[in-house]
Amino acid sequence: MSDTTPKHDEAEPVRSGLARRTPTQRRSRERFERILASAMEILSEKGSDAFRMSDIVERTGISFGSLYQYFPDKTAIIGTLSERYNAEGRACVEQELASVETLPELHAALGRIVEGYYRMFVDEPILCDIWHATQTDKDLQKADEAEMRHLAQLLLARMKELAPSADEAELRRTAELVMVLIAAAVRHAITLERSEGERVVAQFKALLSRSLPGLPG
């Protein structure tokens, strides 16, 4: 049987830097998932710098033609994997911020967000390889920056509700800075031995709980 995607397979539109298409038919979807599973294995074994599209073909037996129907290059594969994990993190942030009604509750929610991201990286070591790849590719860097802005917007919306009279520009800068610092702290913590990484996370959470500039205490 020919290993090609059915011509009439409907697909969800996907933005630039990710897969060409996200198939909806079962057989095509299985092939799509097999490609991504193989990519994760290769990233874990070789790292993003040595990862090649030919590795996917050799490991899965999927033809180059079928592979390129879904992914134009390895950036699109890594970007798709990154977006999946970003979606998990985004859902965590949305859930934690949804019920916040006071500044102490916001501090506590941010602490849980820090802990949640750290646990994601600890439980899924492949995230380190994906993150490294996003920092060495301009398109993936832009996607990472866009995700950070989106998370900052989620935080900003909650902060504006808590402090409606505060200067919006200052709140925006605060929201962006907080999200950038969370990402930096977590990415630093995962480079350390587990016990030291947990101490760094705990200390950073304490810093967040003591003060949020730009909001009335």
How is this structure best described in words?
This protein is mainly α and 217 residues long. It is built from 9 helices and 2 strands. It has helices at 26-46, 53-60, 64-70, 74-98, 103-123, 126-134, 138-162, 168-189, 194-210; strands spanning 11-12, 22-23. The protein has a two-stranded antiparallel sheet with strand order 1-2. α1 (26-46) packs across α4.
Kindly list the characteristics that best describe this protein.
two-stranded antiparallel sheet; disordered N terminus; single chain; mainly alpha; 217 residues
General form: elongated
Largest sheet: 2 strands, antiparallel
Distance between the termini: 67 Å
Strand ordering within the main sheet: 1-2
The number of distinct β-strands equals 2
The fraction of residues assigned to DSSP E strands is: under 5%
Share of residues in helices: over 70%
Continuous helix count: 9
Radius of gyration over C-alpha positions, nearest whole angstrom: 20 Å
Mean pLDDT: 86
Uncertain stretches: 1-15
- Note the run of SSEs as H and E: EEHHHHHHHHH
Quaternary assembly: single chain
Structural class: mainly alpha
Domain HTH tetR-type: 29-89
Protein name: TetR/AcrR family transcriptional regulator
Keywords: DNA-binding
Biased composition (Basic and acidic residues): 1-13
